[in-house]
Structure formats: structure tokens, C-alpha cells
Design goal:
Elements: E1 10-15, E2 21-26, E3 33-39, H1 53-60, H2 73-80, E4 84-89, E5 94-100, H3 105-115, H4 123-139, H5 144-155, H6 181-192, E6 198-204, H7 208-219, E7 244-248, E8 255-263, H8 274-282, H9 290-296, E9 300-307, E10 310-311, E11 314-323, H10 325-328, H11 331-348, H12 352-367, H13 374-387, H14 405-412, E12 420-426, E13 433-434, E14 441-446, H15 449-456, E15 491-496, E16 499-505, E17 513-521, H16 529-555, E18 558-564, E19 568-576, H17 580-592, H18 598-614, H19 620-632, H20 639-647, H21 654-663, E20 666-673, H22 677-690, E21 713-717, E22 725-732, H23 738-762, E23 768-773, E24 781-788, H24 793-813, H25 816-830, H26 837-849, H27 857-867, H28 870-881, E25 888-893, E26 908-909, H29 913-917
Parallel strand pairs: 2-6, 7-12, 16-20, 21-25, 21-26
Antiparallel strand pairs: 1-2, 3-5, 3-6, 4-5, 7-14, 8-11, 8-12, 9-11, 10-11, 13-14, 15-16, 17-19, 17-20, 18-19, 22-24, 22-25, 23-24
Helix pairs in contact: 1-4, 2-23, 3-7, 8-14, 11-15, 16-17, 16-18, 16-20, 17-22, 18-20, 23-24, 23-27, 24-28, 25-27
Amino acid sequence: MHTSPNDPKQYRYLTLPNSLKVLLVHDEEAPRSAAALSVKVGHFDDPLDRQGMAHFLEHMLFLGTEKYPRVGEFQTFINQSGGSNNAWTGTENTTYFFEVSPHAFSEGLDRFGQFFTAPLFNEDAVDKERNAVDSEYKLKLRDDVRRLYQVHKETVNPSHPFAKFSVGDITTLEDRQNKPVRTELMKFYQQHYSANLMGLVLLGPQSLDELASFAHTYFSDIPNNGRQKTPIPVPLVTDNESRQFIAIEPLKEVRKLTLSFALPSVDGYYRQKPLSYIAHLLGNEGTGSLMSVLKKSGLINTLAAGGGVSGSNFREFTISLNLTPHGMEHVDDIVTAVFQYINLIRERGLDEWRYQEKRAVLEMAFRYQEKSRPLDTASYLVMNLLHYAPEDIIYGDYMMAEYAPALIQELLDFLTPDNMRLVLVAQGLEYDRVAQWYHTPYSVTPFTDKQLAQWREPDTDPSMQLPEANPFLSERFDPHALQPGADKPPQLIQELPGFRLWYKQEHEFRVPKGIVYVAIDSPHAVSSSRNIVKTRLCVEMLLDAINETAYPAEIAGMSYNLYAHQGGVTLQLSGFSEKQPLLLKLMLDRFANREFNQDRFNNIKAQMLRNWRNAAQDKPISQLFNDLTGLLQPHNPPYPVLIEALETITVDELPAFVEAMFAELHIDTFIYGDWLESDALALAEILKDAFRVTDQLYGESQRPLVRLGNCGTLRKEVQCDHADSALLMYYQSRQTNPRKIAIYTLANHLMSSTFFHELRTRQQLGYMVGTANLPLNRHPGLILYIQSPVAAPTQLLEAIDEFTNAFALVLLELNEAQWQASKQGLIAQISEPDTNLRARAQRFWVSIGNKDEAFNQRQKVAQELSKLTRADMVRFIVEVVKPRTANRIVMHSQGQAHSNLEPMLIGKPIDSVEKFQKKAR
């Protein structure tokens, strides 16, 4: 098996006697053990009169087996063992996965293995889970992704299984005369869940032999009925569905044009990756690229190539463009430009050096790939296990083994107007059909002869160019030798008025990568909502201005980001460190020579307004979260406030604003990874020159937070355009010390599975139900939330209050072993070693921001957790969380389905955000 030289894990591939394919992964340092099982069954296999069956079955397997019959027991076990679990149903696969502390892996596998040998399909659970599936379907009724996906399904070949409804609802899964759904569910399970169609990955610190014995013990009993997958006999798109213009009405304000080409499956070519080569050229964003030419003409904002759905007998290849309002008037010209560029690739773009350049980037990524969480690794490898030859399971995604120009040419021959479908998603077009299930208005019209003639023989455009050789490719493959003191936490190596430099050479993850954070605090940037919006505008304009020249750096394995926050802006660079100084200089030069171009400003302002207005179409629960953080953090206003400020800002305000912002700066820089101290000091000089840092006297910007104090229950209603109601309850800690963090974190950990089981599984209040740990500006916070198609905020509040009133008793009923297991599970999660360079950088950076300059906050919180007693937690529930005594904010939204029910009138309303925020410090 081909593995990365930087990968210390050991692998073993085996097939059990029942033909189950297994990959074992021994990772000595894995903080948790993980398992993933995928079965080659998905919604393509649903019976026509039982659409959503595969998805319903995925839900049901979690709800009790012969050996472990209690509904919700698996979830509780996972939670107490410091783990997590999930599953998803795709078109031709259903995948289940979980992770737990290593000591609980054997018991976890015993419980998990039963899903595939002895599920109960408990009758009560069938009724309740059918409602959960229906809730999940209803939750997405106003989700554009689902609404557009349904039109996709209705406009392909109707006899292809892709056309089926994948989620299921109360009608497709109802009990029918002499046909209870439970009977059909069991028949579907016995027919399709066969060991020879499954793949299993077990990963953990256990030895390969021990993992092998787990595989034999817990998975050998999965029956193998010898079932083979029947090849899909029909194409995804026939001549009837080709050469069509499809217009779709979204809920959000978007203007997206997608050219879609139907190809046969290309899975067999994973070693050559011909489509990656084509997508790499079509999706290029550098000078002279298709994106650059169309953007300069003011027709598009973004372009992406190479997406599209795929399956065992089809692959869509798409080119998607986000249009400007001007672009909407020139759709045919944009399509012409795409075919001009495809012709350029056909005629001049097939070069072995281009293939080798792409290959070198993938080889670097493979050689220096960083570890991911055990759960993510297992669920990613299980898909590879079913799709690649055993020796390529680890390497397959990175492999570019052979430049095959004839194959690339053959696939380019599918990218023609005659094999194209054109989809335009935009508001206010002409529609004559409505999609089933999601009620999306759309229309389908054939291309005209004029369009086809224009696209088949487009002229050449001399401004279009193929990309040059990439100057950002790394040439240094080995990390620097370790310097003395590399194992210490980050050190403050330079402190000047207005400028601080933190540095650490990474000693454990030995990869030639680095991360640079530059936090630029400016009180002027956040002194009003209008200034906060100007800061965000300037950020977007700078990112837009550097995109073309910095694009090759992204291709070469570097990334950059600039984002606004509550103190000003932060610049972040990451990836291979050798050429990062080049990228930093490029960004700073562009900043120094900044231009505020009127046309680009108009487009960017319009894009930002559109994104923020679209947030009003987000799920109600997302809107409540946004409103809550905007309410409590005056420097982080909610969308309506941002929109109001942005509408009147003009481009000529920006130059003076940037000057004023940079007249009062405080910069914190952190240089971490494969850097020598001399590199860090040299980068710091570049930064100080760029920002004219000389004896500045400004400290960091304040990041105020409204403290709740003894406020009792406060309520705030948010108007959402949605059928569902939603409610979110927030409790805030006054103190920021490790003990308070421990208490709030443990409360969330202890509540989460019981809350989910009680309010979602048992009471069926909705699909989106949960608890969350929400620290704001260092103050711990606890959140309980529900979005519900069946209950108004008043009922949701009653249900949550009933839960919190009873929760102290739930804690008292835990036996000592369960109490200790829960605590240990959380301590293990908090103390878990960093997975990779990026995760460690993020943790160090947060510590710098939180003034945790000894970098030991985690250890302090873990120590406090180990000291917490059950009495402490019961006291916390009774004194802080119980409704009678609680100081809390209740955010709520009354859904259209419940508009006739009484409004919620608990506590005191927050009528004036301004007055409320005056309490901020």
C-alpha cells in the first residue's frame, strides 16, 4: 500500500470470510478510536413507491438492536465515552461512523456491529423516526440547495434513479393497507445490507492484530446474501434533456450561471486524473484566464470549474459563474467566452509540463499531508476503500501517474454546445413549471439555432492566455533543523510601542509549512457600525485586487485570508513556508498602491448587500444565533444594522477612512511553524515598514461584551420568513476563570444527549434540537435551542423549562461510574493533543488573543473539571439554569405555521438594542 513518507500510521487490508472489505489503521498517537462502515446502497435503490427508504433506514439503525434494545442508548454511550457519531445517505452509498476514547472502542464496536446484524426496527421508534425524517424534509423546504437539487432531478432523464426524491416524508413512508412501512423497511434491509457490498475502516492506537480481532469478532456475523449491484442501464442525460436552457427561481438573491456537460463515469481514470487537468486550466484565476477576462468586462464575480454530480455510470462536468447585473444581460456572450477558452485549451493547452506541475503540487500535498481527526480519517478512507484498488486506498486522491493527452482530448470532446445544459439561477425570470416536493418555479427551453451556431464556432479572443509556469512552487522539501528551545511554547521576541511579535518553531509536526497571523487593531475601524462596514468593504476590495496575482500561490499549496473582527482586521497566511514572504510582499505592495476603483466597488458593495440580505433567508435558528451575538457584542452588529450602514457608503469615503484607520494601530504578529527566528524577525521588518510602525502609542481595541448581571429573563423576538418556529436560550458566566469554563463546558456535555433524546426523539419537537457551548469574548456561555415545525415558541419554552427543571434529578440518578465516565470523556476531549499544524496554530493564536500567555488554559480547565463534584453541577443547574432563578436571554421567532397561536410574553422584552448595549464594558 502506497503511503506518505510523512505518515507514521500502519495499515492492513483484509477481507473477512463473509466478503466484508476491511482496512485497519494503527495510529499510535490517535487520541480516539474511530470506525466507519459504508454500504453500497443509497437513494438510487429506493423502491419507486417508497422514496426516502434508504435514508429512513439509516435513521432507524441507531434506535435499538437485539443486544442493546433501548432507544437513545447508543447516543448516550458515545457521549459518555467522549465521542461523537453520525451517518449520511448518498446516491449509491450509506455511511455510518463514530469515535470514542480508546478504552471504550471494543464496547462501541459491539454496539455498532449490531446495527448490521440485529437491528430491532422497534415499532414505536418507526413511528417517531418517520416524523423526524419528515421534520428533516420540512426543515429544508426553504433551503435553496435542496430546491435547486430538485429541479436538477426533474430535468435529467426521468428513468435514471437520480430523478428520485432522496429524503422521504410522511407520505412516502406512511403505513399503507397490508403494507406497513416497517415490513418493507426490514425487507429492504435484508435485501440490500449484504457484507460483500460493505467496507469497514477501524482506526486507533490499538495494534493491527487487536484491530483485526475486533473486525472478526464484531463484523463476521454480517450476512452475505451474495447480492451484486445491478449496473444502471440508462444514461443520466439523453438527447431529449440536452441543449436546454433551464431557468430557476431561488429564494436568496443570487445570479448563478452553470454550464453542465454529461460525461460517462471517469472513476476508472483516477490514476491519470484527466478531468483535474482540464478543470485546473478552465478554473484558473490568473492573468489572461477566462475568469480574469470576464471579470474585467464586468460580467462575473467568481468562476469555478470541475464540479457536478457523479455516480457509477455518469459524471457531470460543470463550469459555474456568479454573474453581475451587467452579466445577466450577456449570458450568451459569457457562454461564447467559455467555448473560446475551451478551444484555446484544445489547441494549445495540452503540455506535459503543465501536467507535471499539477502532479508536483499533489505530490507535495501527499508527502506533507497533515493528520486529521480519527473520525474524519476513517470516514474519508472508507469511501476510498470501496472505490480504489487496495494499494491505492491512501494515495488514490493524490495520484497523477501518467500524462495521457489522448484521454484528455477525448474528454474535451464532450465539452461542446451540443452536449450542454445551461442553468441560470436568478430571481424574476420567466417560469412555467413548479418542482415537486420543494415547490421551486422553473422553466426549460431548448437552445435556439442562433445560439448553437454562435457557440459551435466562436471567434478567438486575443486577451485570453493560458497560465505561465508557477513562480510559487516550493523547491525546499525538508523542514529546517530544529533550533534550541523549539519545544517551548510561543515566545514574545519583540515588543515595541504598538507592535508585538510572537514566534515559535514547530518541533513536533515536521513539515515545511508555516502560519503567519497579523492582527491589526484600530479603534477607528470599529468606532461605529458605519466604520465596521467600511472596514469590511476595504477587506473585500483588497482581496479582490490581489486575487489574480496571488492565485498561483494558492495553486502551489499556500492560502491567505484577510478578515474583519471586533478589533480591526487580521491577515493570515498558511501553507508551504518557503515562498510565503513572496506572497506577503505581494499583498503588502498591493495594499500600499491601493486603488478604489468605482466599478469594482459597485460590484463588491452589491455582493455584500446581497449576501447580508440573503441571511434573512437562513434557517430561523441561524438567524437567532446571529442576532444574539450582535446583541451582546456591540462591535459585531447583526445583518440588518450592517445593511443599513452599507447602503449609503460611497467609494470616495474609503481613502480617508483607511488613512485614519492606519493612523492609530496596534499590531500583534504570530509567526509559527517551519521558520527560523531570523526569518520571523525579517518578516516583522517587512510588516513594520508597510504599516509605518514607529513609536505608536495605541493599545489594542476594546472588545466590549454586554454583561447580563441580575437581569432575570429577557426576551427578544426576531422576524423570520419561515414556517418553523425557533427558540434559543442563552446563559452567560460573569467570570472568565478556568473553573467557570469547566462548569459551563461540563453542563453542555452532560445535557446534550439527554436534551436531544428527550426533545427530538421522544417529544418529536423538531429535527434541529441541541445544546451548545458558546463563549463570547472569553465569557463562557450555555445555549439550548430548538427549531420546530410543530410547536410555537411558548410550547418550546415550556418544553425546555420542563427539561431544565428536571435535569438536576437526571444528574442525581447517574451512578458513580457513569458520572466519572462523562467527566473523563470531556477531559479527554479538552486535553486532546493538537491534530496538526493548523489546529495547533489556531489554539496558540486564540491563547494570545485571550492573554493566556503561559498557553496552559486547557490544562487549567481540565484540572478544574477533575475537581468538580456532582453536587457542584446540581448547584449550578438549580441556581443558574433553573427558570425561576435564571438570568438568561430567550431569543425566539414565531413561525408562519403558528402565527395564530398566542405570542410569547415571558420576562422583559429587549425593546431598544441601543439601551441594552449601554451596559457593555
